[in-house]
Amino acid sequence: MGKSSKDKRDAYYRLAKEQGWRARSAFKLLQLDEEFDLFSNVSRVVDLCAAPGSWSQVLSRVLIKGEKFGRSAWQDRDAKVRQQMLGVFPEAFTPEQKESIENTISLSGDDAAQHNEVEATTVAANRDVKIVSIDLQPISPLAGITTLRADITHPATVPLLLSALDPSYDPAAVAGTQAQHPVDLVLSDGAPDVTGLHDLDIYVQSQLLFAALNLALCVLKPGGKFVAKIFRGRNVDILYAQLKIFFEKVIVAKPRSSRASSVEAFIVCLNFRPPAGFHASLEEPLGVGQRLDMLVREREMQLPIVAEAAMQSERGTWDCSAVSTPATSHESGITEVEVYDETEGNNMGNGARWIAPFIACGDLSAFDSDASYQLPEDYVSLDPVQPPIAPPYKRALEIRAGLSKPTKV
Amino acid sequence: MCPRLLYNSADIMTASQIRFRRDLSQDPVTALALHRAPSGRLFVFAGEDSDLVVYEAKNGRHKGRFVSRVSVFIDQPIHGISVRHGQVLAWGFCHIAILAVESLTREDDGDGSVNGRPPAIARATAPDWIYHGAFSEAGPSVAVLATAHNEVIPLKYSPSTGEITLGAVIAPSRPMLYSAHLSWISDDTILVAGGTVFGHVVVWKCHLLEGGRWSTETLFNFEGHEGSIFGMDICTITLSDGSSVQMVASCSDDRTIRIWDITERKDKARSQPLQPNQVINTGFGGNDIERGDSVSDSSEEGTPIAAVMGHASRIWGVRFGPECGENALSVYSFGEDATTQRWRLQIDCDASAGEPNPSSKSLTGKMSHSKTFSLHNGKHLWSRAMLAEDKAVLIATGGTDSQICLIEEPALIDERSNSVGGSIVLDASDILKGLVSSKEIISRYDFLSHDHILVTTSYGKLLLGHLIESHTEPKWEQINVPEERQGEVKLCYVVKAIDPTAALLGTASGNIYHFSLSSKSITHVSSMLGKITDMICLSNKSRDGSRSASAEVLVFLHGKADSHYFSIDISTGGVRSQAQTGGLDPRFVPTAAGKVDDLLVIGSRHGWLSILDHKDDETYSPILDIATRSRDTITAILPLPLKSGSHHTSHYILVTSRDGKYRIYEIDRRPECVLLHLRHETSPPFGPMIAGAWFTQDTVPELVLYGFRSKDFVIWNETRREEVATIECGGAHRTFQLTCSKSIPGRYRFAFTKTSKLSISSSDQLRHEWVKSGIHGREIRSLSSNGRYIATGAEDTSIRIWDYQPAGEGAQADLRCVAAMKTHVTGLQKLVWLGDDYLFSSAGNEEFFVWRVRNLDSDYKGLAVVCEGVFTDKSADADLRIMDFDVCKSNNGDGIIVTMGFSNSVLRTYRYTSDSGRFELLIKGAYTGACLTQTRHLGIRNQLPVLFTASTDGHLALWRTEPDEGAQHKYVLEQVVPLHQNSIKSLDMMKSGEGYHVFTGGDDNSVGVTLLGQTSRGTGNASWTFVKRSIVRKAHAAAIAGVLLVRRGTELLGVSVSNDQRVKLWSIPGGEDGNIKFLRGGCIGVADAGDIAAVGGPESDAATVVFAGIGLEAWSLV
């Protein structure tokens, strides 16, 4: 696929280049923040599997430089105009918005495709901010961010991270694996190169998730937040149940900038509250053994899990709780129906399950990552901010290319 | 009131009694093992999702015989199977099961099904993902498992109690692995090879001591791979100098296979044991990439014995095969590119032989490619098994395509000699030792039969080769040619067998000679003016009453459009009758011909077909000339088999071409004229050069095509979609001849000239067997059923049509491919049948095709499919996806109404007319910018559709039409309502009374039920509205990509399938009252489910529900 056809096929790829982001995934974090207000009262953050660094870039611009990104960064004005014209989603607009839309219409869309004027307002920069980013791949330096090159699945990374967070960290101290000054937020956007063997990919992804969680357990303060990439496939409900041990709220979120055709989603875990007596242990890491499943079962015995639902309200926020009667009528006219599934396999063998509530985030006027967009004829396709990371088979491709070239003797 | 209530409760009773039953599964094969029973029978154990399935192979049939199936795990595919000591050890993720071989293969005498109770399964759960498991050599009571963190877990099993006890986890270090291999080297010691995510090969020894104690010893940590290691194997061989060498093979993401020396030598100069707690650097060595040529780096420590780059993409597995010469070993690799490749590893033994201390020098060797087997479809060989026996090595492979192949490789003595793999290479000097000067080369040849080949040389000699066994050289006999004829033989340009006992020789001087096998002599047949370029044998009539056998031959001359027809007595070469064609365009260059009844059909170099009829006894004149869809050479023309019981001659011809396609035409003979109708057109998965075809002599004839794919000659069974043979010959542009048995699959001889040498490749039988036949090797994105046939469209850009045979008495349900079309160049989005004879397909790049489907009046059971319409009204860049569309017959009978929903939110409705294949734009519209995922017609009003759409924003929309400029109309949004949070990935609807029930599945884990009703009853101006919407938010744990509505008596049922690999059955309320109810759920082996369809019709009680994605399953509701 050529660069410019990718610009049309993937609005966020184009926006990322226009707005100077290292990767389109920056919008996923921005849209998650819009929904869950992830960055409020946050000053200490750990970003795992950070390369090429677009999430760290968001952290740097929001938390250090104090920039604010609103919906305007990813809003498809054409769509908004069309929604207005078609009378779709009228409830989504305030009178002021309507007015501004009408103004846009009257401007007759001469700059309709120019979405790149980001309204980034700057507030006073925060001096106490501490951000540590870790990846195996080198990350180009970012203002105010400590970057480490390390393997998050490796035990040696814990002391490395702790001393990066806290220069006075002493690995010989009693609480050697606990941060003295814990952090507010742990992020992980890591994913393996998928093989195509679904359950192996899900397993390796869960190992990355558990490695991230293991680090989070060492550094996260009570009440802290954890956000990580997850593959929504078979047995993902077992993973949800296990994350629920450590956090009050566990929500699976899909930003509009993540394609509906992708199994990717983000698990947003709020209000960290590890079970009493639980200590993160390097000797007994999460993700292997039956320790987590036993914790889930213990929890289940103490408080039988009541189907819990967080509903998206009319305004698109996630905090509207549903009454768990079998059917509820809402203002929107949709009857909510609760069902109970006692399928074989739900309570056998593989572990206890729980389906986390799902939230689609980034409002409906956001660019649609599945849609194709028309670009002006004179649109100049930009180069990516950062070239993609070289894959392990890069050399194989080079050698093959070299072989196929006619060589003159 | 009362009866009504009773009626309702009866409904609920039936709904709650409905059960799912899986009738057919075509899931990826993720584990395989081969087992030769003491009875001599060969069993294949396959992991198909969570089931262990047993087949019997090499049973004399074409296909493996199903023996048994048992569900071993729940919701978990089997990833490995090891058979030893009469026990089967199976694992998947952290789950382990042990079953007795006997319980899976024991059979009743008569009916062939496994006897008695379901087999007893011992189960256990390990703490981590398992990559390998192996019983001890001593017996089934001890085994070990290798985990994804480089750990070994001892396992104790008691066959009597069926109890499994896992020991403590043993590990010298815990890097994350992508592969591991265990090898017992004594009763208490295991050699462990782990391949890490970061490309390291870790080799260590694990000693199991008394009382559950253990010790470990790290032997090697090899760096060098630039990507994760996906497969490993260990072997020990004895070199010619008597030394024993232990090796590990690794294959990787970096497309290399590397062989490492892990021999433990007395002085440990080469190994560096690691301290138990030493931190090993992880991550790919940062400087590897820049270091340049690490593959051929000289004798650094940890340098592999050999390394080689292979396969088109990632390499998933590697196995050591048997020895294939002195210090040589065969190595097999299995890739993402769905091929199995054989390599020859030659170890350089001499280098170390002279050294006083061999261990001081590292072992070197060389890997070279020897053969590629491309027997699977699509991507990924997920599983492989090998069984080395005395005479042959058996290799089983399983892939995403759900197919299981069994390759039989005869013991390879020494590959460098001529006689391996049934192929012999000859040149003239080999044949005529001492008889000829060194410059004499083999000129032309043809097989008379499987037993004889007739050859001419550049010096005018005529040789008859008696072909005996495939491996041995033919016995040659020089045919006595009178001296005055030798010059003519020298000028021979064509040798053409017309019978197993006779051949014709055509010369550049325009003479035809007859060769008789019985008299071993040549006689002159005829002369003509010009150089004979080719002769086509049109028919071969056996003895008929008093008349002896004869053959009809058409002779082409250089530079002439017209050709000569002969009927020749096979035994004497006497001319019975002769004729000439006349009246062809002078530019016509004949290249192929066939005879149907009394008509001659001739094909040309530029793709023209000419039908000629007898004008008088001496002339054939064209009665029809058509330009085919090919502009390239027509290579063969043959009649289709007759319909049994029919007395007519075939009225179909099959035409192959160098454009990579084959076509079937119907000859339509009318009193005043003759017409040719294209009925079928497709390209097999090789080409572009298709050289010819034949039909087998089975009761149901199968179509076999042959031709070239880059450097290989390929024989392909189109009916079974199986590659019968692949012969490396250097490419298409060469002299070649093929003789093939029409009754024994895989029996052929193929002769070709390469660098002036004649090679003959022979086979007496199929060298490989399809134990289980497969489907697409990529995700199926769309399914459509017309009640009779199922059409599937996949990410591999191909469409296939299948005939589904439901399970019957004692017979398994079966899926048979009846057509395959590969015209799209992007992955399929959507397929829709309209009636039995129209299929529509859409994909990316705005590709949209109309397929006309027909049955052929022939014993050949292939379905005839031809692309009748191609959508051309594309946007400037033609880069949008047609996400969905709907089709219906126009209610005034004028064409077909097609409405397409595009990825850029645009809607377009066309009228398609089949006569012209034209699309006429009727209506345009646009939604908000969101990608449209679902487009449906609710009905037709004033010749225009009432439209219903859904999109990635989770909303449902109703559209009406208004007049626009000119004759065109535009879509106007009538009503739009939210239902799902984001993309509506699936939608089905069913008419119910005055309205529609709409069942939707979203990316948001929800299923929705929407009732559509009409606001006014007037026929002309009824307007649709949303009567009721309801949603189940946590219907599944992941996106729901397939929903279906089926009627069961008076009840409406919904079926949903999700990425969480669950199928759920729902009761849909009949009207506004009542809510959707969950009835039942089940686990399904289809990952990444793309679509659902009902075979036998959604309104029929006997409906079978088909699910497809990665894999395909058919379930019935009972």
UniProtKB/TrEMBL annotation, chain A:
Protein name in UniProt = Putative tRNA (cytidine(32)/guanosine(34)-2'-O)-methyltransferase
Q: Which residues bind S-adenosyl-L-methionine?
A: 53, 55, 135, 151, 189
Arranged from A to Z, the UniProt key words for this protein are: Cytoplasm, Methyltransferase, S-adenosyl-L-methionine, Transferase, tRNA processing
**Record organism:** Trichoderma asperellum (strain ATCC 204424 / CBS 433.97 / NBRC 101777)
Q: Kindly identify the residues recorded as the active site.
A: 229
Give the superkingdom in one word.
Answer: Eukaryota
- Listed EC numbers: 2.1.1.205
Q: Which GO terms describe its cellular component?
A: cytoplasm
Entry's localization field? Cytoplasm
Function field: Methylates the 2'-O-ribose of nucleotides at positions 32 and 34 of the tRNA anticodon loop of substrate tRNAs.
UniProtKB/TrEMBL annotation, chain B:
Organism superkingdom: Eukaryota
Q: Which InterPro entries match?
A: Quinoprotein_ADH-like_sf (IPR011047), tRNA_Anticodon_Mtase-Reg (IPR051973), WD40/YVTN_repeat-like_dom_sf (IPR015943), WD40_repeat_CS (IPR019775), WD40_repeat_dom_sf (IPR036322), WD40_rpt (IPR001680)
Q: Where is this region: Disordered?
A: 276-301
Keywords, ordered alphabetically:
Cytoplasm, Repeat, tRNA processing, WD repeat
Q: Where are the WD repeats?
A: 246-270, 782-803
For this chain, the family text in UniProt reads: Belongs to the WD repeat WDR6 family.
What is the official name of this protein in its record? Uncharacterized protein
Q: Which organism is it from?
A: Trichoderma asperellum (strain ATCC 204424 / CBS 433.97 / NBRC 101777)
